[in-house]
Design brief:
Number of strands of chain A: 2
CATH superfamily of the largest domain in chain B: Response regulator
CATH class of the largest domain in chain B: Alpha Beta
Strand content of chain A: under 5%
Distance between the termini of chain B: 63 Å
Number of domains of chain B: 2
Strand content of chain B: 15-25%
Largest sheet of chain B: 5 strands, parallel
Order of helices and strands of chain B: HHEHEHEHEEHEHEHEHEHEHHHEEEE
CATH topology of chain A: ABC transporter involved in vitamin B12 uptake, BtuC
Shape of chain B: elongated
CATH class of chain A: Mainly Alpha
Strand order of the largest sheet of chain B: 2-1-3-4-5
Oligomer: heterodimer
CATH topology of the largest domain in chain B: Rossmann fold
Largest sheet of chain A: 2 strands, antiparallel
Structural class of chain B: alpha/beta
Radius of gyration of chain A: 19 Å
Helix content of chain A: 55-70%
Number of helices of chain B: 13
Strand order of the largest sheet of chain A: 1-2
Number of helices of chain A: 11
Amino acid sequence: MFSPLILLQILWTSLATSSYLVLFTVAFALVLKVNRIFNFAQAATMTVAFYAAYTLVSRLGLPGWAGLLAALAAAVVLALPLELLGFRALRRRRASSIFVFIFTLIISELVAYIAMLVYGTWPATVFPSLFWPVRIVAGVAISEWDVPALGATVVAVSALFLFLRRTRIGQSMVAVADNPDLAEFYGIAKDRVYLVSMIVASLIAGLAMFLYGTRAQVEPTTALNLLLFAIAATIIGGIGNLGGAILTAVVLSLCENSSILFIPSAWQGFLLYAFLFVAIVFFPRGVRLPRRLRLSRSVPTPAFAPEEPREA
Amino acid sequence: MDGDDRMNDPTRRRVLAGVGAAGAASLVRPAFAQAPHALQFGLAMPLTGGQATYGQDQVRAAKWGIDSINQAGGVAGRKLEAIVLDTQADPQVGIQDVNRLVSVNKVPVFVTAWSEVVKAVAPIANDSKTVELSVGANAPGIAKLGEYVYTTYPLADVDVTAIARYSATKLGKKRAAVLYINNETGIGGANVYRRAFTRAGGKVVAFQAYDPHATDWTGQILKVRLASPDIIYIEGLVADTPQLIAQLRQLGLTQTVSSYSAIYNPNLIKQLGPAAEGVIATSLAPGPSDNPAVKAYLERWMKEVGRAPNGLPYTQYLHDAPYLIAAVFKEMLAKKMPLTGEGFRTEMLAIGTFHLPLTGKLVISPDHTVQKPVYLMQVQNGTWKQIAVVS
């Protein structure tokens, strides 16, 4: 019934769609790994980034690159007070993880509420048109959005891994993620590392939201729904395992799209929760890759997550 | 601030709700509204929260209706006045509002919208024998909420049935694919379409749900392509339907795409460009080309507000609701009836047919449904054009 061409089409579209999902997941997993914050405020960053791009491109008629820069700038502008005035103060007060989590939840809701007041609830897109021309390659429809989006994702993820492995501050981030107290003992300024981590994650989230907003419509609460996917991918991929989270985001996207070939379409939305349930119950440490295939070291679980033994 | 102060501190939501309600109240209470014998009715709409952009425009439209009635001499020499409360489109807040309207203000009739709110406050309307006019909500169950709940807006099955029949009989389509969002709106509408299309002689060859948070529909679209339909019907929401149509076109499906009133807005054409060509949607209110009063109404929006209203057809119905209420009050006063909910209901049913300025003829039927003409609109050469009116 289903030709190889159909499977190829699903594979390609799922891969293209996973571009922004991967970036959402990477941003979330990075803050969880380094800052040890279950950062629901990422939804606020995503919302601010989108509306900055939307304002410049759709409302003021500026070109797309200006919108991208605005999205990145807006994401960073929100990240700075969030870290400097919010998270840093909470750390100094030794606020519990659950309290910090609630704080991030409040920020995301607050920003969504303000966005509703300012922009209303009518769905919006970065560019006035949602339609991207299509080219047929070997029977598979490839839109003009697909390749640049995938390219941007590959570049961003590669840049992140290079940053983490080749730069001093990146190595400091890995060190803080592994053991913050030991890192501090060796002279690493934790606060600086946390700030850089927030900025990097915000840039990634800003890029992802720009990509999403050029392909799909966004409402003030859209980011909260998108974040759910990132959380699921992070948990299934193994908390603290950036590579696992990325791979999970791609696989989840593929599973969701191809599932319709095998199960009734009404059950499609159920899949994400089913995966999440199975992962939490049967794989609380995430679905682990063989060590040689991992892209980064695992780190100790944050205080609020289920305890797991540290790896040597 | 100590603990007690904190306890007494109003929440942001209350403050905003108060500001919103006060703002709206100032909109609808002209200077003479303080006159002791003003005829009052309730208007419980979302003025804050996620639906406020629609609610505020609808309240503004109702205010314009009230102003016009009062400028024309009011109702038998008495002014008409709305008591506006903010529901936030939240059933719990709606219940508080309606309790106040029936027990403190003792209005005989109130207007509200949003299906969840309409359903939540229905028991209060029935218990207190106060007429609840649902204006804009379209859940099919509204017709069965009790003897004091009436709608002036056609429920969901009216336009979906009309477009299904039109597709099968007038457009000659025999094989339909249905794509629907997997929630109450989508499931209900998709089933109505399937029934109506099948009864009209067609066959539904694909019936595919999609998740409300979906951003990609490749699987569903490829299954639709395999079924080889000659028309595609989408029962989605304004946020997802344009994307779904874009992806249909990108994946090479060229069949006629149809949907209901949710996508009838100029944004669809902006968002899809040439891919919007041929899309058919419904409208449940006459447009500027059908009724000069609607044209003047739109011009007033552009002049006074600088834009078209959010959800034009809904605002038309809200604008007209005070005219219906005024007509019933007028008859009650002429017959020297007490201004109670029971009397209002009796007289409203006795009048039965109302001719309203922006939405035309309205028949309030004893079965609590409303039949209105359905305007079928199609994108042709970059604009919405009316292709048929289905009674």
